[in-house]
Amino acid sequence: MDDQRRRIVEDLSGMLAGTLHCDPLTVALYASDASLYQVSPLGVVCPRHRDDVVTVSRYAAETNTPLIPRGAGSSVTGAAVGPGLIVDFSRWMRDVEEIGEQTVRVQPGIVRDDLNRLLRKQGRYFAPDPSNTEITTVGGMLAVDAAGSHSVRVGSTRDHVREIELVLAGGHVLEFETESLEILRAPPETATGGPAMLDSTVLSTPDVSNARIKRTIISKLAKLLADHSDLIRERQPALLRNSSGYYLRGALTAEHLAVPRLLVGSEGTLGVFTSATLHTMPLPAHRGVVLLLFGQLEAAVRAVQKIAPQQPSACDLLDRRLLTLARESESAFAELISPAAEAALIVEQTGFSDRQVRDRVAMVRRTVEALPGQAIVAGEGYTPDEVEFLWSLPNRVVPLLTRLKGATRPLPFVEDVAVPPLALNDFLVRAQKVFQKHQVTASLYAHATAGQLHLRPFLPLPTEHDGERIESIARDLYQAVFSVGGTISGEHGDGLSRTAFIRSQYGPLYKVFQQIKDIFDPHNLMNPGKIVSDDAHVTRRHFRPSPQPVSDVVDLQMQWDAAALTEEAVRCNGCGVCRTQSPQMRMCPFFRIDLSEETSPRAKANAVRNSLCGTLDHREFGSDEMKQLADLCFNCKQCELECPSNVNIPQMMIEAKAAHVAEHGLERADWILSRAHSFGVLGGATAPLMNWLLGNSAARWMIEKVVGISRHRKLPRFARRPFAMSLRHELLRPPNQADAVPSVVYFIGDYANYYDPELARAFVGILRHNGFRVFVPAEQTSSGMAMLTAGDLDAARKVAEQNVRQLAEPAREGAPIVCTEPTAALCLQQEYPMLLDHPDVELVASQVVEAGAWLEQLHHEGRLKTDFSPLDLDVGYHTPCHLKSLSGGSPLLRLLSLIPELRLHTIEEGCSGMAGAFGLTKANFQTSIRIGWGLISRMRSSEFDIGATECSSCKMQMEQGTATPTLHPLKLLALSYGLMPELRRKLRPVAGGAFIT
Description:
- It is built from 42 helices and 29 strands.
- By secondary structure, the protein is an alpha/beta fold.
- The chain folds into five domains: 3-88, 2-Layer Sandwich (Uridine Diphospho-n-acetylenolpyruvylglucosamine Reductase, domain 2); 96-281, Uridine Diphospho-n-acetylenolpyruvylglucosamine Reductase, domain 3, CATH 3.30.465.10; 285-403, Alpha-Beta Plaits, CATH 3.30.70.3450; 562-665, no CATH class; 667-997, no CATH class.
- Strands 14, 15, 16, 17, 18, 19, 20 and 21 form an eight-stranded antiparallel β-sheet that branches.
């Protein structure tokens, strides 16, 4: 830590209720956002309330330290990075302070979708809908005047703001609404011996009253806007969308000054927002959506011009590249979208009745069908589910642009232009010429009837040597924008990528922007370098450093080289989707209970990238601080699954843990719990004694002290005889292609072997019932996932090598290797190839399949018997994370639906929080319970007779604190087949105690 950061820590420690971080690792995590830029801040402040913001603002004025406000850190322009103190509002300041009949008062860190989930209970919502609304904070929306697909009907953020609370550099707290100019005619408040009016250069003086500061600002703003009213009308035309520069048009009338309209879109350059009162709207009574496909982009644009007079509530345009991604990403989209489609429009209409909406959508259809050129109505939706499905097309697909492979990426540096809607076709022709001149292609997504276009040229990630080309493309494209009367930013603001071009757009009006900046922030401390800047080439500076894959930077232990690890880390573009709290997604279990940046998957990718590029000392990779960060990942795989770019965060964190183990060794609890399989034989041989000890409170207290297993965690009993020790001869005979009966290789896994042989017997019975011979390799061992997740790769490698030796020969014979434990299937299938340099590892991995997926495939082929007898039960089913990662679904849930009278209820409460050994330990027990509390609470209710899940760890959490048993779905199939009648006793509630069922 350098001297300046050390001084900040000394000065502010003890003064904040929130947190302050100036350590190298945290600083690196906040050095970038979702843009191309990276600037290392001095530190990060996470304020808990307004008083913290006042304290930091006063400190900024006293020490001449810049402040950079930040929400989700999802800016694509570089607005949320800077060289001073980052003020992260998303950590603590997320409260809804008051809900009125037509307004809501909120703090800046609240996420837009979280706010609307609350408002929906009153039948209202906060209407602006920018992309990524599941992570976008209201403060971020205020900062850039966010809009979205429905802006043509509901406007942008500034149209919904009543009041804003602003903290200036120096700590003055001002509340602005649409201010009456009568305040200027009243006698001014004066201090004894002080001037009636204040000069802007002393606005940061703390002993001047807030009332006098506010009066001064209103007076100077009113005079400035009045003096330049003609210039404002001339240079800031009435576009539907414009978030470039300070928005002055319409702010001043003869009687009022609409200060909030000016503050919205100021990107934190005038002050820090700490609270805002927003207008809310009634939820639309009825909505209808139609998806239209076109053979040419030009035809789609012509259709927009004809549709616009019908006043759709939204009309979005997608180009061919996005449609291709849609078809590839989801089968439902592939069925809707023809491969011949070059463009699509999603048009929405709202109304007071279903009939009115249907009539308005029909009018859109007739209008488009009457145009020359072929147009196809691909789909319509009127129910909430149908509407949301069609809108999921752009919401899901546009982020997938970052998933495209190759040396070039869709770069967000000119992606936010807005033009008059009638000039849309003219502008697209000019833009195409610009891209042809520079020999690049670009993707197109547009809120077409608002004239808002998101263009992303495909280029390599820029270095300092590419700055001139980036700047040249932007300059030429913006000249095309200006030629049709458009703006360089419609809803994402200016940041570092566009600030240099504001002077070109506004000409002499830019000087007015400078004067406004001086009125609010005379010492240029609030997010300096954005909107107002003397650097004419800021666009080409501060690009993210390119990691250099040098082999001796980090001693890698998995099967990738530095170049592959670098590529993986760089694929994270910082979009922040991994910060979601959406109930429809699972990532990230840690972030859901602790909303700090370091818990987000994005932070892990940033840490690795900075280690490789030298922003962080390479020795940080194996440091205790990196280990703490890596421990905020327990390899559930949901971030990789749900990330738009599928960045492999879990294996990067395993590599980081392995670096720490190599340097510092393995902690005792991790060593013991990752080797639980080693104690299985001993536990089975002494099962009565071991089970007595595990059920004795005094013994559990001692085990907690010595081993680290929480005494509060319900545990499984050791089986008296492991399944592998009870194998009959026919289960030990390897498969042969000459066999008349098809063979299946059963990889048992630790849990079924040592704790639940009944599960293994159920699966073997199901296989035999369906005409398969079963082979169980006698020398198979644990999958090794617990060792791997702990970073103990040497030990994991040994068990993996043993299993590959056991499984390679039957794999060569073409036999499927089936696992009843999803974690085991995932480990053998995905982790072993990254762990072993072995000639047979890919062969084995290719044959591994989870039991439910394999049985469902049999069902699809008509080879699974369905002679199920009824089970009169209500079953609460939980999908394990590793199963989602393997198959993206729940195959056994679908098979259970074949059982008569069985009533299935899916429990969508996210990750169970167990993660194998993670949830067993005293250190992690409370965290595990917090993550899994939704699941635990559902199982404690009386709505289910039993629970069901494929994962043994999830079963432990589902039975924590409840008498309701949880069974593997295979046991229910076996029971329904009539194979194991004794399983019926497992359906009854059990008395509480130290053991799971």
